[in-house]
Amino acid sequence: MRLSPAARRAGVAAGLGVGTAGALAGVLLLGPLAAAVLLAVVFALVWPLAMVVRHVTDEAPYGSAVKVAGTAAIGVLCLPGLVRLLAWGAIGVVVALALAGLFVLIDFAVPSREPRRRTSRQQRRLKELSEIQVAEDERLIASLQCPLSIEELCGVWSETATQLAQGTGLRDRQAVAEVRRICLDEFERRNPAGFHRWLEAGAPANPSHYLLPAGGDGPTPA
After folding, report:
1. CA angle at residue 64 from 109 to 110, to 5 degrees?
2. What is the pLDDT averaged over residues 161-180?
3. Which of its termini does the chain have fewer beta carbons within 10 Å around, N or C?
4. How many domains does the chain have?
5. 109, 138, 163: which is the final residue of a domain?
6. Among the listed residues 35, 34, 12, the one whose alpha carbon sits nearest the alpha carbon of residue 22
7. Residue 222 lies in a domain
8. Does the residue 155 lie in any domain?
9. pLDDT tens-digit profile of 182-217?
10. What does each C-alpha distance from 206 to 27, 29, 161, 186, 201 come to in angstroms?
11. Rounded to whole angstroms, what are the CA distances from 14 to 9, 17, 83, 151, 220?
12. Do 207 and 170 share a structural domain?
């Protein structure tokens, strides 16, 4: 049976409360100095191991090595503290339950946050490569906004028509669509009459017959 999100949150908060009670009892049992030494030793042992695990696996099994090492250190301190609480009998149980209830109340008082999805190292690398490729496409598109001649723009339009006819990937189709949009804007801006005649003719693959001076309407200056 799967628990509801509220029940899971309450369970985690109660566990943290009991763990906090155990940690406090562990400090009382061992003393502040011995407890600090124990925390430091366990942290120093677990942290490099957690770093190695994160380095050799593609899927990140946890948030950070520091978090894992800190949790392990506190968990080790909690064990003798929980034993001490059980030795106190009913008083120890009441203290643990009181802290568990307090943590549950605090948890429900704090608004919940959406869990952050963890991505593997391979997914992050693919995202970086995609961003680099998109940046290159944007630079290519920006270069078409420089003052190319209308004859060159007609050549670009014909080449992109050939690319679309041959078939391209999704990212390439998006880049080609943006290039053709820029060409359309330039066609209309530089030779509106020829541009509209070309559209009325069904926008053939080679617009130079309608947009170049031989078509009867010279291009306007860029």
Report:
1. 5
2. 77
3. N
4. 2
5. 109
6. 35
7. no
8. yes
9. 888 888 888 899 999 999 998 888 888 888 875 444
10. 82, 87, 9, 15, 11
11. 9, 5, 18, 73, 75
12. yes
Query: Would you say residue 134 lies in a domain?
Result: yes
Residue 215 carries which DSSP code? G
Q: Are both 10 and 105 inside the same structural domain?
A: yes
- Alpha-carbon torsion angle 188, 192, 195, 199, nearest 10: 100
Angle subtended at Cα 198 by Cα 196 and Cα 203, rounded to the nearest 5 degrees:
120
Residues 140 and 204 in one domain: yes
Tokens representing residue 10 in the block: 């309450």
Separation CA 172–CA 114 (nearest Å): 34
Tokens of 184: 């359309």
**What would the pLDDT profile of 133-153 be if each residue is shown by its tens digit?**
656 666 665 555 556 788 888
Question: Which residues does 141 contact at the CB level (< 8 Å), separation at least 6?
Answer: 175, 178, 179, 182
Per-residue pLDDT tens for 192-201? 999 999 999 9
Q: Are residues 97 and 40 in the same domain?
A: yes
Supply φ then ψ for residue 180, to 5 degrees.
-70, -35
Helix (H) or strand (E) run with residue 120 in it: none
Considering the domain architecture, whether residues 10 and 104 belong to the same structural domain is answered as: yes
Range of the domain at 152: 126-215
Quick check: is 120 in a domain? no
Q: How far is 201 from 76, CA to CA, in rounded Å? A: 80
Task: Please say which residue of 76, 109, 142 terminates a domain.
Answer: 109
SS3 73: helix
